[in-house]
Here is the input.
Amino acid sequence: MTAYVSHTTVDSIDAYAQSRWWQGVLDYHEDAEDPNLPGHEECMIFSADGRHRILFIEVPDPKQVKNRIHLDLRPVEGTRDDEFGRLVAHGATLVADRRNPDGTGWYVLADPEGNEFCILRSDAEVAALP
Here is the structure.
């Protein structure tokens, strides 16, 4: 017997705002028959193929400490640095720059509620380095 991950849940102060923000980051969508609306305490978004889902649930307390789990994102198009610029313009904040002189490494960013996530090099960038 085995299990599978149904969805990733993110505790949020504003589930709707978080779902909308992450939709813009990941190009995910919501269920057209059950749309996310302001004031909803639970808001789900889905990957294009429907295989990955993120559920934002409102909780009364803000983030307290460093995440114990986080998302590592890899750009679909462009470079890690291009994606960094796009996400900062989208409202992410830089937590740490973990890039190395040889081109490896990543950025640690935070979403509007302080949840940390990383931006890795694209597949093309990884393939270009020995």
Remarks:
- Strands lie at 8-12, 42-46, 53-58, 71-73, 93-97, 107-110, 116-119.
- The chain has two domains: 8-58, 71-128.
- The mean pLDDT is 93.
